[in-house]
Amino acid sequence: MKKDSFLFTISKLFVSLHNKHFLFLDVLILLVTPTIAFLLRFDNVTLARYAMPLVVYTVYALGLRLVIFSRFGFYGRLWRYASVEEVVQLISGIVVATVVVSVFFFGLRWRSLGLCTTWLALCGLPRSVPLLDGILVLLGVGGIRFSSRLAAGWLSRHRGIVPMRRVLIMGAGDAGAMIVREMRANPQLGLEPVGFVDDDMYKHDVRIHGLPVLGSRYDIPDIVQAYKVTQVIIAMPSVSGKVIRDVMTICEQAGVPAKTIPGIYELLDGQVSVNQLREIDINDLLRREPVYTDTTAVHAMLRGKRVLVTGGGGSIGSELCRQIWRCHPSELIIVGHGENSIFNIFNELNAERSEYDASIGRNLQPVIADIRSPKRLQVVFGRYRPQVVFHAAAHKHVPLMERNPAEAITNNVLGTRNVLQACLSADVERFVMISTDKAVNPTSIMGASKRVAELLVHRTAKESGKPYVAVRFGNVLGSRGSVINTFKQQIAQGGPVTVTHPEMTRYFMTIPEAVQLVLQASVLGRGGEIFVLDMGEPVRIVDLARDMIELSGLRIGEDIDIEFVGMRAGEKLFEEIFGEEENYRRTRHEKIFIAADAGRFIPFDLDASLSVLTESAQRDDKGAMLLALRHLIPEFRPVGESVVGKGREIRPLDTTKGQLDDISTSHQPGMN
Predict the structure, then answer these.
(1) Long-range contacts (CB closer than 8 Å, 24 or more residues apart) made by 639-648
(2) Measuring CA to CA, which of 19, 155, 304, 608 is 20 to 30 A from 511?
């Protein structure tokens, strides 16, 4: 106990040292080391005989070393957190100081050869003194600093406040090395790395930061037992979701918890720290191969421009605003109908504004406006004169739009038409509409409405000659109305977790990934194209449900059940990303496809059909809306129950152009 008490006292003393203390200790060390070096050189000699030369050497060596130490940052660091970088800095500073002192020593020695009887004479001092002195300085100055680092580690391990957990790192790459460095620099975290595992066999049996690479992921169970591992950290930000899933399963079988670092889309700066460690979630299991974007081209397109985003408070819209703001537009106009969501994203971005942004007039403009009001949009566009517009405002919830088809038509179709007209009036240079894979061979009102919106974009691009384009992609993780959020709520309530069909599949992307590709597609657009994002492999919804239940620490059939409730109106069993008649090819970006001939599908009577659709929506006549949509989009195949129109029953699959003509004639006099 007395020994531990003494060690605690000494350790606390070293940990409490600050740079002013190190300066004082350095002066003492530098005053003593020349004499010790001299005595080491001579066994039996009268020190008084060489006192004056030794004093001269000690004084100028002290002054030179303190100046050089200061220039090398010896007094501007927290040495209790010292790492390899500090070791290199310390050795470099002492070596440089020793060389400079030696140069002065031999220079004065040569000068004093004819004056050996005077106090300036240094010829009597052995030539080995500067070297011996330098070695002693390294031991003294370096030792006192790294004693502080070692004392901090000893205190952390023996205080009994933070128990040390033995950690195995999955991934012997840059991310894993960063994690180990930070664990060692912050022993108060209570994490003790014991080694790495990596599937790259060339890394096996090598050491990284002194830790061995012990095997592959399949060796984890044996390593956990042999090294008494209590936690596995997956340090592979760019690995696929399949690998994450396999490692998580192996860790569960080994009875050890696993944590991970964020994926590559969350690590925009490429830096990894222990603070970013978190539990594995569904985003990790669906993680896709990293997508590399030409950020230079995107920045060049947006820098200094006035950019407007509709639906700026939504999941996609708000992320668009974040990434656009990083490209330094001169002005970002955030347009939305929901005041709370616009308030939130405006406050978030406004908090990031710097004094430089204010000095150059880089502005954020929150605007509350409904895209269904053409007059309001004309005022907004006339006031801010945007140069680039991203149109993300839309109703996207399929079952809800089946119940409220008029809202889908007025918002998704007429709202898009209003935005396009405002763009033409304000001479907007570039327009990008966010579309959906549900617009391909649509079976829902929502999908059909987005397909009509695409047609409007194609026509506007064709008539104006401007680069107005549409970008399609599938479901995004974490968006409003996402099945992920529904599953989370059902699991929190104890189940059951409801799935519509055991074979239903969907494409999934993360929100940051989708927005990165949207911005990339906006650079590629020339006018009238449809861009389709490569969304990887489709995922079965029932597999998604199982993963989320298991991630919650529950067992299917014991703690919680999965129930199949049947497909809802408007839903498909699987989503398509390419239309049958659209000719797609890859662009120069490997994750983006293009249908350059999309404009050839524009109906010749688009305006007349839109008039019928508009009036049907205003009357909330679902049957008439379905007929109008079938006329505009021949591939539209509504699913679900029969639709009751005004005074008659209309089965969507039996509609004909003649029925549309009947409605057009009865409700639009004089229209052929």
Answers:
(1) 639/443, 639/444, 639/567, 639/569, 639/570, 639/571, 639/572, 640/402, 640/568, 640/569, 640/570, 641/569, 645/621, 646/619, 646/621, 648/623
(2) 304
Complete domains list, the chain, with CATH: 2-158 (no CATH), 165-285 (3.40.50.720), 295-601 (3.40.50.720), 606-667 (no CATH)
Count of all residues that appear for the chain in the document: 672
Q: What is the pTM of this model?
A: 0.61
Structure token pair of residue 511: 């929100």
The DSSP code for 203 is G
Would you state the pLDDT for residue 354? 66
Cα–Cα nearest to 438, from 501, 390, 395: 395
Q: At what angle do helices 541-551 and 483-492 cross, to 10 degrees?
A: 40
Q: Is 121 exposed, middle or buried (0-12, 13-18, 19+ CB in 10 A)?
A: buried
pLDDT in tens, 265-322: 454 444 554 455 655 656 666 655 555 566 788 888 899 999 999 999 988 999 999 9
Say how far apart CA 530 and CA 537 lie, in whole Å.
20
Residues 384 and 372: their CA atoms lie apart, in Å, by 19
- Which structure tokens are listed for 242? 């399949």
Go through 507-521 and write b for each residue having 16 or more CB atoms within 10 A of its CB, e for each that does not: bbbbbbbbbbbbbbb
Amino acid at residue number 73: G
Q: What is the mean pLDDT of residues 654-663?
A: 36
